[in-house]
Amino acid sequence: MIVITLTKVPQSLRGDLTKWYQEVQTGVYVGNVSARIRDLLWDRIMKNIGNGEATMVYNTNSELGYQMETTRKDYQVIDYDGIPLMMRLNTTPGPVKHGFSNAAKFHRAKVMTHRTDRKRAHKLQKQVTAIDLETTGLKVATDKIISIGAVKKVENGEIDQFYKLIQVNDNIQTKITTLTGISSDLLKTRGINLDSALQQLKEFVGQSVIVGYNLRFDQEFLSYGFKKIGQPGLSNQMVDLMPVVKKTNKFLDNYRLSTVLKEYSVRNSKPHHALSDAQATLELETKLIENGHLLI
């Protein structure tokens, strides 16, 4: 059993805890999770507590059977012959200075230093191209690429875009048209053949690092496409942002692109449009670097 009490903390932090614990009274959370999840949640509390306070009591194998942690400035957890006690500190308070614990302050300082270093490194790094595909389905061997979008930053900081519709012999299913806005008629009038599209994509990408979200899906379709036209595939360094997000943000409801973009405050004006998705993915890559979560 684990009990956590929170006082004057951000509402977003309280919302996170309700995914794992039951709020039995305002600011009082009760639950039963593994030690790993418990520690991860406490770390999250420490990093996001703002000006609030938190105390946690949880089961252990000690003689008394429980242990305590707190961020309060007027109390300290001490060990008295194996018994955890909350000792009130005999200090003369002026106003209590709320804020982050020393550990949290150190963590934030370290993150900010990394962010500065990453921003500097970002300016010196290799050129990055974000790509995205729309297809008729999920099966590489039977489904087809119907659009390719790619976006990269050029030397003056402006965005260079690549977008091609691909002609296919199959009729586009209604559900795909509804999702992507791409119809059979559109591909017949504005599409080009796969051979031309892939060759132009290779020229656009050049030697840049390729990033994507759930990039393995795009890689498999591109590799199959190049093989189909008898040309060597892309040999660029590939970076999938999905595993990065999963490693650094363990508390999202899901890891769909739309959910992740919202979490990182990245706007995507046309979801399931290859060019718009590629643009959003490039912005996500920038955010991850600035936050110290990615280095290319």
UniProtKB/TrEMBL annotation:
Signal peptide: none annotated. Residues 127-294 form the Exonuclease domain. SUPFAM superfamilies: Ribonuclease H-like (SSF53098). GO terms for biological process: DNA replication. Keywords: DNA replication, DNA-directed DNA polymerase, Exonuclease, Hydrolase, Nuclease, Nucleotidyltransferase, Transferase. GO terms for molecular function: 3'-5' exonuclease activity; DNA binding; DNA-directed DNA polymerase activity. Pfam families: Cas_Cas2CT1978, RNase_T. Gene3D superfamilies: 3.30.70.240, Ribonuclease H-like superfamily/Ribonuclease H. InterPro entries: CRISPR-assoc_prot_Cas2_sub, DnaQ, Ribonucl_H, RNaseH-like_sf, RNaseH_sf. PANTHER family: DNA POLYMERASE III SUBUNIT EPSILON, PROTEIN NEN2. This is DNA polymerase III polC-type. The lineage of its organism: Bacteria, Bacillati, Bacillota, Bacilli, Lactobacillales.
